[in-house]
UniProtKB/TrEMBL annotation:
SUPFAM superfamilies (UniProt xref): alpha/beta-Hydrolases (SSF53474)
Protein name listed in UniProt: Poly(3-hydroxyalkanoate) polymerase PhaC
Residue intervals of the Poly-beta-hydroxybutyrate polymerase N-terminal domain: 117-288
InterPro entries, alphabetized: AB_hydrolase_fold (IPR029058), PHA/PHB_synthase (IPR051321), PHA_synth_I (IPR010963), PhaC_N (IPR010941)
Chief site of localization: cytoplasm
Gene: phaC
UniProt keywords, alphabetically: Acyltransferase, Cytoplasm, Transferase
Domain of life according to the entry: Bacteria
């Protein structure tokens, strides 16, 4: 079968006329699109990228180096020109072959030495002269840009890392797959569907813009496929306490007896807690109850502009301490085992320091899931934690009272732009496809706003100034320090986590004052490394009892363990959870059940609140 026979649809005159007619619908949708964009809310321009001075300094440094060493510049130019000529020659060869014989367009693909790239999976990138040349020239240009950035000198390390990030974003944005005229998959589908794919794609684009007040937030999942409490977040339980900060859910027991000491789990408030309860097969919440524990989980408020003045002290006082006191009261115990995930783990460490200074022993042990306490190395977030970007966030907060969810979502997404921005945008807007019914992506798009005061405390005091491990973080009349975390600690980190890198988490745990510290590195990333049930048997984990060495030495001396870390954690937790007692139903006379799990707060959408 020839290339043309396998990919070319019917392109009769009647077919073309139908395509033209469908394009009239595109024009109407375009007008609707302009109306949506005209109503778009503004945000500080510094949130769109760095001050142009960064590029000016980089260009000056680059050309200064080249002026000192013109031979180096000539060498780079000749190499670039040479590769461009090779790309053109290959395209000419393909064109000549395609014109030979009785089957125009039939060619054998040219072997490529470039690394495999899912964006260029269509055979036409290799066999069609036009697309082959575009791909090869794009890859050549991308390599030239990255090499130029790598060779820039006379700028500090932070600026160079920022320059590399933003240069890479330009490279990713300019990929030929991101444009209709140079995307063979999209072009083929447009012809096959007589333009209907483009109409559907434009409808998807307009719908996404309308749902986010004119901001382009690509919808990652089919929202109609999921309903919280029906097919996700379904583990049985009851809300047993509610205040202006959170709902506290107590889950129903699944065993006749339970450990005396309950668990209180604090999820991050940047997203919703049900990442730990997506479905029964991978629900950590369900699994914990099956191991014979009384489990309480906090479901945080999704704040609106009226909550702008809520700070970390409110999260600690009305969130952590209220949840702990409620769990102690219901279970009639003096201590709980606490768990904190991501930013909630960071704040759990602040809470532990506060309780240490108050002489309060309510927390018996602490487990941290991918939680940072030492921010001395900002990793991939370096571009977003410099003053120009943080100043822009502060301006955004001044104008709106909170850090809107879409800004955080966009920031996290562009760290993996091909997977979370351009790929979904191509499928939705160019191909006209409905986003997949994927629960993890649904959760990823169900974000939360951050109160303005809390966001700036976190960004300035912890992320930028790293006060918790330096001179101390001033809060609630105390100077909080990581060394005051003295309860037994188990930290779970993830090998490929780009949000809370395991080496950074390790450095923070090393500085904790606890005499009993267990550190684990799970395979995979920030979510998949944590949501890794034993039944899946997909990812293993690394352990090493020597926490005095540096991170590289720890990893070199670590033991690899097959399977999930969950049973290892449960074995550790069991030793700190007391005797067996009769299973507890949710609530008591002082804390009657208010509503079934997953509660009401989790259902509040950030987009709706931010636009009210």
């Amino acid at each position: 079968m020839t290339t043309s026979e396998s990919t070319d649809p019917d392109v009769s005159p009647e077919h073309i006329e139908r395509i033209k007619k469908n394009m009239e619908q595109v024009e109407q949708l375009s007008k609707r699109l302009m109306d949506v964009l005209a109503q778009k809310k503004s945000h500080p321009t510094s949130l769109d990228g760095p001050n142009q001075e960064l590029f000016a300094r980089a260009a000056t440094a680059y050309w200064s180096e080249m002026a000192k060493n013109p031979a180096k510049l000539l060498e780079k130019q000749v190499a670039y020109w040479g590769q461009a000529v090779v790309n053109f020659a290959e395209a000419q060869s393909l064109l000549a072959k395609s014109l030979e014989g009785d089957s125009p367009g039939e060619t054998a693909p040219i072997a490529s030495t470039a690394p495999a790239d899912r964006r260029f999976a269509n055979p036409m990138w290799q066999s069609n002269p036009y697309f082959h040349f575009i791909k090869q020239q794009y890859l050549t240009n991308a390599e030239a840009i990255r090499n130029a950035v790598a060779e820039v000198e006379d700028i500090d390390d932070i600026d160079k890392r920022r320059l590399g990030y933003f240069a890479d974003q330009i490279v990713q944005m300019m990929a030929p797959t991101n444009f209709l005229a140079t995307n063979p998959d999209a072009l083929e589908k447009a012809v096959e569907t007589e333009g209907q794919s483009l109409i559907k794609g434009l409808e998807n684009l307009v719908a996404d813009l309308e749902a986010n007040d004119g901001e382009l937030v690509v919808r990652l999942a089919d929202e109609s496929a999921f309903e919280i409490g029906r097919n996700i977040a379904t583990t049985p339980g009851e809300v047993v306490f509610r205040n202006e900060m959170m709902e506290l859910i107590q889950y129903r027991p699944t065993t006749e007896t339970v450990h005396e000491t309950p668990i209180v789990l604090f999820p991050p408030w940047i997203n919703k807690f049900y990442i730990l309860d997506l479905k029964a097969q991978n629900s950590l919440i369900k699994w914990v109850t099956e191991q014979g524990y009384t489990l309480f989980v906090v479901s945080w408020l999704n704040p609106g502009a009226e909550h702008a003045d809520l700070g970390l002290e409110d999260y600690i006082e009305k969130g952590y301490l209220s949840a702990i006191e409620t769990a102690k009261s219901i279970c009639k115990v003096k201590q709980v085992n606490a768990v904190g995930y991501c930013i909630a783990g960071t704040t759990l460490s602040l809470t532990l320091s506060l309780l240490k200074q108050r002489g309060d022993t309510s927390i018996k042990s602490a487990t941290f899931f991918t939680a940072l306490t030492d921010f001395s190395d900002q990793g991939e977030f370096t571009p977003f934690l410099q003053n120009d970007f943080i100043d822009g966030i502060e301006e955004e907060i001044t104008n709106n009272g909170l850090l809107r969810s879409y800004i955080m979502a966009r920031t996290f997404s562009f760290l993996r732009s091909n997977d979370l921005v351009y790929g979904p945008a191509i499928r939705s807007y160019m191909m006209g496809e409905t986003p997949p019914a994927f629960d993890l992506l649904y959760w990823n798009g169900d974000g939360a706003n951050l109160p303005g005061r809390m966001a700036m405390q976190y960004l300035r005091g912890l992320c930028q100034r790293n006060e918790f491990v330096r001179d101390g973080f001033e809060l609630m009349g105390h100077t909080l320090h990581v060394r005051d975390v003295t309860v037994p600690v188990m930290a779970i980190t993830c090998e490929t986590d780009h949000i809370a890198r395991w080496k950074d988490c390790y450095r923070g745990v090393q500085q904790m004052g606890s005499r009993s510290k267990t550190f684990v590195v799970a395979q995979s990333g920030h979510i998949a490394g944590i949501v890794n049930p034993p039944t899946r048997d997909k990812y293993g984990h690394y352990t090493n009892t020597d926490l005095k060495v540096d991170a590289d030495s720890w990893r070199e001396g670590a033991t690899f363990n097959e399977g999930s870390w969950w049973p290892r954690w449960e074995s550790w937790l069991k030793k700190r959870s007391g005797k067996q007692v009769p299973a507890r139903d949710p609530g008591d006379s002082q804390h009657p059940p208010l509503t079934p799990a997953p509660g009401d707060y989790v259902r509040v959408k950030a987009r709706r609140q931010a636009s009210d």
